[in-house]
Write a sequence for this structure.
C-alpha cells in the first residue's frame, strides 16, 4: 500500500452573507482550512475544517508529520493532541465568541476538528487507492441520498461596506421575510424541512416566525435554534407555545442541568449541538434525559468514525441523531454526506449552510434535488479539487487580515456598542 508522500495545508477565506445570530452577524469573509494528503502513487485525498488561527497553526504543525506514514487513521486524534503543546495552543482563546454557538471551546475540540480534516483526507486518498467510495471504507451505505434541511437565518440584505460580497436573497427580519426565504429555499433546492436560527429577536417574534413557517408548509418539519439564548422559564414558555408546531427545539437554554429541566416539562424533543459536543459530555446528559436528538458534526467530534461511534452511543440510549453545520464548502459537504449514508436510524434532515456559500474549491459543487444529495459511489469522497479556485481563495486570505470568525466584531461595525450577550439573554 502506498504511503503518504506529501501533505498540503492551505488557509482560505470564503465569502459569507450577513446572517444574524445571538453572537452578532457573520463576517463578509470567514476562514477555512483545506488539507491535501498526497500518496506515493499520486492519489490526492481532501479534507476541510475550521480556519481560525488556533486550528490552522495546529494543522500546519501536524501535517508534515504524516509524511512517510501509511493511510492509517486509528492514532490520528492522539497524534494531533500531542502536537497541541508544541504549537503553544495550551491556552484557549475564549474571546472568540462564535465558538459559543457550538458549546464550550476546549483544546480537545480544536484537536478533534483538526484531526477530522486529516482523517477525511486519508479516507479520501485510501478510497482513490482502492477505487472505493468513502462510505464503503466506513462499512457501506444504508441509504442512497441524504436529506438536508433549509437553514433559515434572519439576515440583512447586505454587509455594511459597498465592496463586500453581495447576494440577491434580500433581508429577512420578520416572519414574512423568513417565510419568503424558506419558499425560495424550497423552490431552488427542494428542501422540505426548515430550521430557523433564532436567538436574534425576542422570543415572541421567533414564535411568530416559527408559526408562520408551519402555516406556510403544513405537515413539514420546522425547528427553532436560539443557541441557548433563553432561561429555563423562557424556554418552557416558548416550548408551550410551539408544542405541535415544531419537530424539535434546538438548544433553547445552556447547560445539561437547564436542558434536563426543560426536557422534563415539555413534550417537544430537545436537540443539541451545544450541550453534547464531545464524548465526555454524553454520560451526564443522557442519564439526565437532557436531550432527545444529538446533532453530530464530524469536524468537532473528531472525524467520520467518531461520528459513527457517536451514532452507536445514541442508538444504545434511544437518543436520535442528526447533523449540525457551520459555514462550509463542498469537501465538508461530501464528507457529511458519505458518513450520513452509513448511519442507521438517521430520521431527521441534516443541517447544511452550503446554500449560503457562493464559492467552492471543488470542480463540481453538489446539487440538491428534492432537498437531498445523492451519495457518491465514485472513489473517495467523489469530489475533485479546483486548484484555480483554491489559489484564488488562498490569495484572498494572504491579502487580508481576517484570521478568525468573530460575529460580535462584525456586528460592532454597524452597532458600535454591541457586545455578545450573557446567557441567558431572555
Ligand atoms: O453560523 O450563525 C451560525 C450558526 O449559529 C452556527 O454557528 C451554529 O454553530 O449552526 C450552528 C447551530 O446549529 O448552532
Ligand atoms: Mg444549533
Amino acid at each position: 500500500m502506498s504511503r503518504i508522500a506529501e501533505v498540503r495545508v492551505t488557509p482560505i477565506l470564503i465569502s459569507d452573507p450577513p446572517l444574524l445570530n445571538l453572537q452578532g452577524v457573520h463576517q463578509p469573509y470567514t476562514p477555512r482550512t483545506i488539507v491535501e494528503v498526497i500518496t506515493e502513487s499520486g492519489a490526492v485525498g481532501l479534507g476541510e475544517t475550521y480556519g481560525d488561527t488556533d486550528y490552522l497553526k495546529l494543522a500546519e504543525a501536524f501535517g508534515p508529520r504524516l509524511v512517510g506514514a501509511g493511510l492509517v487513521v486509528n492514532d490520528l486524534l492522539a497524534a494531533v493532541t500531542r502536537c497541541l503543546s508544541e504549537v503553544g495552543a495550551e491556552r484557549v482563546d475564549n474571546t472568540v465568541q462564535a465558538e459559543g454557538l457550538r458549546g464550550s471551546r476546549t483544546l480537545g475540540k480544536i484537536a478533534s476538528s483538526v484531526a477530522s480534516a486529516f482523517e477525511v483526507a486519508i479516507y479520501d486518498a485510501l478510497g482513490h487507492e482502492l477505487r472505493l467510495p468513502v462510505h464503503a471504507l466506513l462499512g457501506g451505505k444504508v441509504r442512497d441520498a441524504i436529506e438536508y434541511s433549509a437553514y433559515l437565518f434572519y439576515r440583512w440584505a447586505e454587509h455594511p461596506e459597498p465592496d463586500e460580497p453581495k447576494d440577491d436573497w434580500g433581508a429577512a427580519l420578520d416572519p414574512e421575510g423568513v417565510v419568503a426565504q424558506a419558499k425560495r429555499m424550497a423552490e431552488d433546492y427542494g428542501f422540505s424541512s426548515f430550521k430557523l436560527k433564532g436567538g436574534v429577536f425576542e422570543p415572541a417574534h421567533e414564535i411568530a416566525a416559527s408559526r408562520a413557517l408551519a402555516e406556510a408548509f403544513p405537515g413539514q418539519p420546522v425547528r427553532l435554534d436560539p443557541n441557548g439564548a433563553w432561561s429555563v422559564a423562557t424556554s418552557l414558555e416558548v416550548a408551550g407555545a410551539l408544542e405541535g408546531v415544531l419537530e424539535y427545539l434546538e438548544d433553547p437554554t445552556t447547560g445539561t442541568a437547564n436542558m434536563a429541566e426543560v426536557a422534563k416539562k415539555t413534550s417537544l424533543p430537545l436537540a443539541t449541538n451545544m450541550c453534547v459536543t464531545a464524548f465526555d459530555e454524553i454520560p451526564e446528559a443522557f442519564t439526565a434525559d437532557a436531550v432527545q436528538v444529538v446533532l453530530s458534526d464530524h469536524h468537532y467530534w473528531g472525524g467520520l468514525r467518531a461520528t459513527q461511534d457517536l451514532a452507536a452511543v445514541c442508538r444504545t440510549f434511544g437518543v436520535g441523531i442528526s447533523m449540525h453545520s457551520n459555514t462550509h464548502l463542498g469537501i465538508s459537504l461530501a464528507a457529511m454526506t458519505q458518513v450520513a449514508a452509513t448511519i442507521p436510524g438517521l430520521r431527521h434532515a441534516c443541517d447544511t449552510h452550503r446554500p449560503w456559500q457562493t464559492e467552492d474549491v471543488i470542480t463540481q459543487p453538489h446539487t440538491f434535488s428534492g432537498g437531498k444529495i445523492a451519495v457518491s459511489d465514485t472513489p473517495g469522497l467523489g469530489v475533485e479539487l479546483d486548484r484555480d479556485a483554491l489559489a484564488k481563495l488562498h490569495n484572498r486570505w494572504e491579502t487580508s487580515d481576517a484570521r478568525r470568525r468573530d460575529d460580535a466584531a462584525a456586528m460592532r461595525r454597524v452597532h458600535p456598542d454591541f457586545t455578545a450577550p450573557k446567557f441567558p439573554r431572555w
The radius of gyration is 20 Å. The longest strand covers residues 4-15. The mean pLDDT is 96.
